[in-house]
Amino acid sequence: MSDVTPAGPVGGGTWAGPAAGGTGVGPAGGVTPAGPVAGVAPAGPVGSVIGARPTLVVVGATGAVGTVMLDLLSTRADVWGEIRLAASERSAGKTLRVRGDDVAVSALSAEVFEGADVAMFDVPDEVSAVWAPKAVRHGVVAVDNSGAFRMDPDVPLVVPEINPEQVTNRPRGIIANANCTTLSLIVAAGALHREFGLLEMVVASYQAASGAGQAGVDTLYAQLSKVGGTRSLGQRAGDLRGVVGDFGPFPAPLVLNVVPWAGSLKGDGWSSEELKIRNESRKILGLPDLKVSATCVRVPVVTTHSAAVHAVFATNVSREEAQRVLASAPGVVLADDPDNGEFPTPADVVGTDPTWVGRVRCSPDNPRALDFFVCGDNLRKGAALNTAQIAELVAAELTGRCSAL
Length: 405
Ligand code: 2RA
Hints:
It is built from ten helices and 13 strands. It is globular. It binds 3-amino-D-alanine.
C-alpha cells in the first residue's frame, strides 16, 4: 500500500495509456536554495542539468498527498524548472494550480518522463512497482512514497534530517520515502539516538483517518454526521455498529471509538503498519538489530498521526538532557510544559511541518529509558514534505548546488 490511498479517481483509474492532457510549464522564478546539507555529494552521470533547474514530474498529483505536494511546491523555496503533473487517465485533463499557474494533468505514460530529471510517485504500490523503474529508464531519479521499494537493499530509505547522505546511494535510481507512521516519530527518535544510542522502542500509535486516504476522511465525517449529538450513543456494547452504517476502510466504527488496527494482517497477529515501524526504523537509523514493538491504533482524528514512545538507550538519560537534544534537533519542536498544559495534540499540529514532541519523562524504573509523545502531520512530514525534501536534495545534487532542505 501507498502511505495514503490516493483520493478520488486516482485510486480507481487506469494507470496506462497515452497522455490525454498537456503538460504544464510553471514559472522558473523563485529562491535558489542555500546552505549546507551534510554528506550529500553528486553521484553518477547527472551533469546534464548543472546550472539549469531540473524538471520535476509529480505522479499521483490529484490524490490526498498529491494535493499537499502541490501546496508545498508552491510555498517552499522553488528549485524546479518545469513541473509536470501526472495521474490516472480518469484525472487526465484536469487543471491544478502549482506555483500560481494552472497546470494540466497528463495521464501517466512514458512520455511524461521524457527529458525530466526527477519524479515523485504517490500512487499505490503496484503502480509504483511498474512506473518508477520505467521513469528511471528515462534517466529520471524516482522518489517513491509507496511501500514497493522501501525494504529493497538497493533502494535507500531517506529522512533528510537523519540520513541525507543515503540519497546518493541509489543503485536502482529509486529513493524511497518511509510510511507516515514511521515518519511521525523517527525524526525525534533519530535525534535522541545520535546523542544516547537507541537500543529499543515500544510504540503505540494514534493514527488519523486520512492515513487511510480520502475514503478514511469521508468515512469519519459521514459517521460524525450519523451520530450527531445523540447522547445515548456509546453507552451500550455495539450500539455504534448499527448506527454508523458504512465502516469504510476501517474494521469497526471510528467515531466515538478507537480501533486497534491499521494496515493488513502479516502473520502472528502483527499488522503491516506495526512491522513497517519496526523495519523502516531499523533501516533509516542503520540499526538492523534495533528492538521495536509497535501497536497501531486508528483514532477519530482527521489528519496528524501521534505516537507514545518508550525508548531505551545505551546510556543514562535525564529528562533535561533529552529536552535539550529535542529542542535543538532539526525538524523537531519541543512542546513540553505540562505545568501549563503544554503538549502536542493532533488538532494543534495539523497543517504544520515539524515533528512535535512533549510529555518527555525519564522512566521511573530504568534510568536509560525515556517516554515521550509525538505528533506529526501524516500528509506533510508523513508523506509529501519528506518526499519534497528528498527530491530537493536530488535537485541540489543534479544542479551542483547545496540544499537548504
Ligand atoms: C495509515 N500509515 O495511516 C498508514 C498508511 N499506510 O493507514
